[in-house]
TrEMBL record:
<feature type="transmembrane region" description="Helical">
    <location>
        <begin position="12"/>
        <end position="32"/>
    </location>
</feature>
<keyword id="KW-0472">Membrane</keyword>
<dbReference type="GO" id="GO:0005886">
    <property type="term" value="C:plasma membrane"/>
</dbReference>
<feature type="transmembrane region" description="Helical">
    <location>
        <begin position="158"/>
        <end position="179"/>
    </location>
</feature>
<keyword id="KW-1133">Transmembrane helix</keyword>
<protein>
    <submittedName>
        <fullName>Uncharacterized protein</fullName>
    </submittedName>
</protein>
<feature type="transmembrane region" description="Helical">
    <location>
        <begin position="131"/>
        <end position="152"/>
    </location>
</feature>
<dbReference type="InterPro" id="IPR000791">
    <property type="entry name" value="Gpr1/Fun34/SatP-like"/>
</dbReference>
<dbReference type="GO" id="GO:0015123">
    <property type="term" value="F:acetate transmembrane transporter activity"/>
</dbReference>
<feature type="transmembrane region" description="Helical">
    <location>
        <begin position="38"/>
        <end position="60"/>
    </location>
</feature>
<feature type="transmembrane region" description="Helical">
    <location>
        <begin position="105"/>
        <end position="124"/>
    </location>
</feature>
<feature type="transmembrane region" description="Helical">
    <location>
        <begin position="67"/>
        <end position="93"/>
    </location>
</feature>
<keyword id="KW-0812">Transmembrane</keyword>
<comment type="similarity">
    <text>Belongs to the acetate uptake transporter (AceTr) (TC 2.A.96) family.</text>
</comment>
<dbReference type="Pfam" id="PF01184">
    <property type="entry name" value="Gpr1_Fun34_YaaH"/>
</dbReference>
<dbReference type="InterPro" id="IPR051633">
    <property type="entry name" value="AceTr"/>
</dbReference>
Length: 198
């Protein structure tokens, strides 16, 4: 009897990165104040592409044995679904607050800032572009947290611009896996982090 060999699955990284990138891109455009500042347009993306699809990518990363990818995609997928729920009137989350809503959002965003810091530190020995993704995402969450606690629209606008950079880096990381010498005439460098040993 021949030995059973499980069928390998495709790399789910680009799918998760694209789901994260597009949803982040749209919300960040809103946060910059370009063309309006009502964030509800992102709900569809946040529930499905940035949310459900990214969680699926995270589960597939578990299958591939990628701890960081599995943790990041599953967690940020959960972030997007929870964020969409906050914006959806049917959940009545914002209605439960009066003056304290900004503070509550500050607590919510602070938690994600801390989580992103952990992910950033966990990527120090990985590829440079992935570290840059977590670095700019950390700055984005930090500015959003400050903006919520201080009720400072300028911080939210700055977070929008950093979020746009984050989205572009996420797309670049996805493209570096999709656009290779095997599939295209060009390839995208990602760079390896070089940390000196102490």
């Amino acid at each position: 009897m021949s030995e059973y060999r499980p069928r390998p699955i495709a790399n789910p990284g680009p799918l998760g990165l694209c789901g994260f990138a597009l949803t982040t891109f749209v919300l960040s455009l809103v946060n910059t104040g370009i063309g309006g500042n009502v964030p509800n347009v992102v709900c569809g993306l946040a529930f499905f592409y940035g949310g459900a699809v990214q969680i699926c990518a995270g589960m597939w990363e578990f299958k591939c044995g990628n701890v960081i990818g599995a943790t990041a995609f599953s967690s940020y997928g959960g972030f997007w679904i929870s964020f969409a729920a906050i914006l959806t009137p049917a959940f009545q989350i914002e209605d439960a607050y009066k003056k304290e809503f900004n503070v509550a959002m500050g607590y919510y965003l602070l938690g994600w800032t801390i989580f992103t810091l952990i992910m950033m530190l966990g990527s120090l020995k990985g590829v440079r572009t992935m570290f840059l993704l977590f670095f700019f995402l950390f700055i984005t969450f930090l500015l959003l947290t400050i903006g919520s606690f201080a009720n400072a629209p300028d911080c939210n606008k700055a977070a929008g611009w950093f979020g746009l950079i984050t989205a572009l880096i996420a797309w670049y990381n996805a493209a570096s896996v999709i656009i290779t010498k095997e599939t295209s005439y060009v390839s995208l460098p990602v760079g390896q982090m070089k940390i000196p040993h102490v």
